[in-house]
Amino acid sequence: MKKIALMILLLSFQVVPDDLNSDLTTVQQDLYQGIIQEVRCLVCQNQSIAESNAELAKDLREEIFQQVGQGRNEAQVKSYLQDRYGDFVLYEPSFKQSTYFLWLSPILILILLLGWLRKIGVF
Amino acid sequence: MKRLLPIAIFLGLFVLLARSLFVPQMDLPSPLIGQQIPSFSLNELGKSSTVTHQDLLGDTALINIWATWCVGCEIEHDFLVELSLDQELGIPIIGINWKDRDDLATRWLIQKGNPYSRILSDPIGNTAIDFGVYGAPETFLIDDQGIIQYKHIGPMDRQNFDQNILPRIVELRK
Amino acid sequence: MIPEIGQLLMITALAAAFLQFLIGIKLFTLDQSLRMILIKRFALIQCLSIFFAICCLGYSFLNDDFSVLYIALNSNTNLPIPYKIAAIWGAHEGSLLLWIFLLSFWGVTLVFSKKFIDQDKMLKIYSLSILGLVSLSFILFIIHTSNPFERIFPMPDQGRGLNPLLQDPALAIHPPILYAGYVGLAIPFALALASLLMPHSSSWAGIARIWTINSWLFLTGGIALGSWWAYYELGWGGWWFWDPVENASLMPWLVATALVHSLIVTEKKGLFNSFSTLLAIIAFSLSLLGTFLVRSGVLISVHSFASDPERGLFILMLIGLFTGGALILFALKQKRSAPLKLELFSRESLLLLNNVFLCSAAGLIMIGTLYPLVLELVNSEKISVGPPYFNFVILFPCIPLLIFVGLAMFSTWNGKGSKLLLRSSRVALISILIGLVISLIILSYDTPLTTVGIILAVWTIITGCLPLIRSRANGLVKNLPMTLAHIGLGIMVLGITVTSSYGITFDDTLGFGQSKTVGEYEFKLITINDRTGPNYMAKVATVEIYSENQKIGTVFPEKRVYDSTSPSMTEAGIETNLFRDLFVALGEDLGGDIWSMHLQYKPLLRLIWLGPFIMILGGLVRLFLLKPLSETVNS
Questions:
Q1: Percentage of chain C surpassing pLDDT 70?
Q2: Does the first or last residue of chain A, that is N or C, have fewer Cβ atoms within 10 Å of its Cβ?
């Protein structure tokens, strides 16, 4: 009886574990870090919420942290943000009709310039 | 002609930059326009009752996100009070007090006047995030189904209201 | 009194620049020699006037003369003296003053250089005249819209102070170095245009190349410095963000690199004259574009000066004048050259190919940076284009670039392709092998891209060393610049690849006495103390770092508050050596002696700046230790 009481006493004095945020696995930490670097801070002059000290940035970091801890993946977290703030909040532009040119430009430019090189007699 | 290509590209660039100098940067468009207000459950300021999004349905109304620490809110406050006293227009203004303290909010309203038909408290900010709020003040116009019709970012004034919101209210009430 | 003298000096500089420009126009029938003397004098007067104007501004700063608006806005009595000097270029007006000073200074270096003096008279006169026009326009811009000597009445008792972010040694010298680079590109620009105005010759290439390297050195240094500063100052361990203003400095750098290589061919072989001319025009135009982007408010950036559409308009008009004018001149006057008959994979064609890749990279960065603007105007849509996009698309030109940079080392002038591939295959195999060993065995497999990056870095470094290995003693120094530059490039690529792939970041909360393990390292928060600086209050943490239970260092990250209006600044605690950085930044005070902390392990991070440093060494060797290229033709 005394032993059990002692154990309960000791357990109740258990020090708070190393960190309050240990609910994220290493993989989840990576995911979290990766996501917050790609989310734009809307009240800042072009910073990600990872770097920003703004209140909104902290709130969003906290929210994303929670969601990642609950097992959501990158696409889910990003669409959560997109549904509320629009495309602007993500640093990676979505692939849609208005951004076809943007995403295809690397290939286009290379083809154009290499074609030009051919025309002027390099190949 | 090879020689003219650089000039052509440059001209396009030049026009782009010139236009962007004179066209003011647009506000962030809200993806929530045309959708129903997000679901939430918040405490009413100074009372023990809870308000959900359901309670806001049934009437064309304005939802105003505000805080005592927000400078723009102070600027628009007089106009909101004026609006709330407009019997003819009769549009209810629902306030959501964002990331604030109940006691500070109450005192502020007592000092400056209370334009709100109801005031909800969102101290943590989760509901504001659901509304896509990024900077107070923000004002939403909703119809009687709770569909968001328009969002105004920044302090509201008479000119803005008459230009953008009033016509929509009139339209919705037909 | 002193500020008014400063204004007078500005007007003197304006007059000198105007006269410098006029000499180039055939308005008066002046003897060429007389013109030459006059134009040199005016260039010198212009430079000295601006220099003393800056001294006036500096003097006023040191005397806390808050009756000058610029000083009232950017300084206060508590500002440490070095930063009062740095505040001269801390905001828009003063930075423009620096801009025109560096422009006039480069002009003076041109005037006094032997290589320039040996040039054709008309080339000299035309180029200095064009430089005069550029100076003239910018001095007008300053006097009309951005006068640093403007007074404020009544005079405030205390100034607002310098942005805390700028109160840092690296950032204090970052603008002068970067501007020297930007502005220096005006020289090859002027030389290119001058050569267009004259009968066909490619003699401008030799001297243009030297001044392009000068600018390139400063641009490389300025960009690397900015990146390094962002890393240790901004508190979260990033070193490149693809911010519009960062892009605005990278684009001219890429084009300047292409320009240097193109000028080598023009100088040695007389080929690529029109490419070199066009590149020279584009390089300086990109500098002007950068100036526009930072100051017009058209793009949102952490770097933006206070935006003002009126200023933006003026700069845009200048861009229209100089870029538009230059391109029109180019279209009208550039001589048609004979169609290129290049051997596939000869040195000429590989240099051209690599320039295509460099310019593609610049073009892609331009598209990505301006796209949100286009979409907003055309489609009323707001999107963001940031690191995820740029990090992806930049690979398209960069991977082929690195491959061909290495291949070019095996090429010869007019050489044949088949032999090239044969000669290179052995080294290619060795590089692949070493790369695989490093990425799979020494480190651990991460992604295919990581392995590719490491292989390419090794390839670039080894091929860079080849000319050095193959040459005899007298050829050693001759090849050193190229070797150093390319080794530097390879080292930088290695650093970027390894740190991006193998770095670990952890955000966590720690209480006093608690520790957290990141990778092989243990970070232990000991305590946090208060500290008062000259113009700030700080919380300083003591964090010990252990590896395999041995203490390897102690760092002291800080959180500083300068005044009630500025947000707090974080000073990171960094334990560093060439192989890895251990980065600690303070987050928030969560109460109860618990703080949130930002912990990072970054392997080979320092290589990202060591690379550019070696590149700069290469450039310096080229400038100071070697005889002009034209004297070594056909080698």
A1: 97
A2: N
* Cα–Cα dist C242/C234, whole Å: 15
Contact A86 B28 (CB under 8 A): yes
- Tokens 């970052």 found at: C174
Q: Domain boundaries in chain A?
A: 23-92, 97-123
Q: Cα-flanking dihedrals φ and ψ of residue C584, to 5°? A: -130, 130
Encoded tokens for C17: 């620049």
Does a structural domain hold residue B13?
Answer: no
Is there a domain that residue B65 lies in?
Answer: yes
C window 296-335, beta carbon within 8 A of B: 296, 298, 309, 312-313, 316, 319-320, 323-324, 327-328, 330-331, 334
Q: What was the pLDDT predicted at C292? A: 92
**Distance to chain C for B110, nearest Cα, Å:** 28
| CATH H-level superfamily of A23-92 | Cytochrome C biogenesis protein (1.10.8.640)
Range of the domain at B138: 28-173
Tokens in use for C219? 């641009």
Residues 6+ apart with CB under 8 A from B86: none
- Is residue A10 pLDDT above 70, yes or no? no
Alpha helix ranges (H) inside C437-472: 448-470
pLDDT of residue C282: 97
Query: Does residue B15 fall inside a structural domain?
Result: no
Average pLDDT (C256-283) is 94
The pLDDT score that the predictor gives to residue A11 is 47
Chain B residues in contact with C324 by the CB 8 A cut-off are 7, 10-11, 14
Q: Tell me B101's DSSP state.
A: -
CA distance C499 to C601: 9
**In degrees rounded to 5, what are phi and psi of residue C215?**
-65, -45
**Interchain pair A82, B125: CB under 8 A:** no
Distance between CA atoms of A48 and A31, rounded to whole angstroms? 15
Give the CATH number, domain containing residue B165. 3.40.30.10
Helix (DSSP H) and strand (DSSP E) numbers for chain C: 21, 10
- State the count of interchain CB pairs (< 8 A) between A and B: 33
Number of domains in chain B: 1
Q: Which is nearest to C103 in space by CA: C22, C25, C49, C30?
A: C49
Q: Do A53 and C568 touch (CB under 8 A)?
A: yes
> pLDDT at position A5, please?
54
The 3 state secondary structure assigned to C508-522 is EEEECCCEEEECCEE
Q: Report DSSP state, residue C305.
A: P
* B134 to A43: CB separation less than 8 angstroms, yes or no: yes
Q: What is the pLDDT of residue C634?
A: 38
pLDDT for residue C10: 95
CB of B7 less than 8 A from some CB of C:
yes
Instruction: Determine contact, residues C381/C375, Cβ cutoff 8 Å.
Output: yes
Question: Under a CB-based contact definition with an 8 Å cutoff, are residues C605 and C500 in contact?
Answer: no
Chain C, window 190-249: residues with a beta carbon less than 8 angstroms from a chain A beta carbon: 234-236, 238, 241, 243-244
Residue B32 pLDDT greater than 60, yes or no: yes
Q: What is the pLDDT of residue A67?
A: 94
The structure tokens listed for C459 are: 């390839």
Residue B1 has what pLDDT?
57
Average pLDDT over residues A12-33: 62
pTM: 0.92
Find the CB nearest C388 among A91, A99, A106.
A91
Does the pLDDT value for residue A9 go beyond 70? no
Selecting from C341, C360, C384 the residue whose C-beta is nearest the C-beta of A91 gives: C384
Tens digit of pLDDT for each residue in C18-53?
999 998 887 667 788 888 889 999 999 999 999 999
Residue C81 near residue C163, CB atoms below 8 Å: no
For C480-494, letters b (16+ CB in 10 Å) and e give bbbbbbbbbbbbbbb
Per-residue pLDDT band for C413 (boundaries 50, 70, 90) equals confident
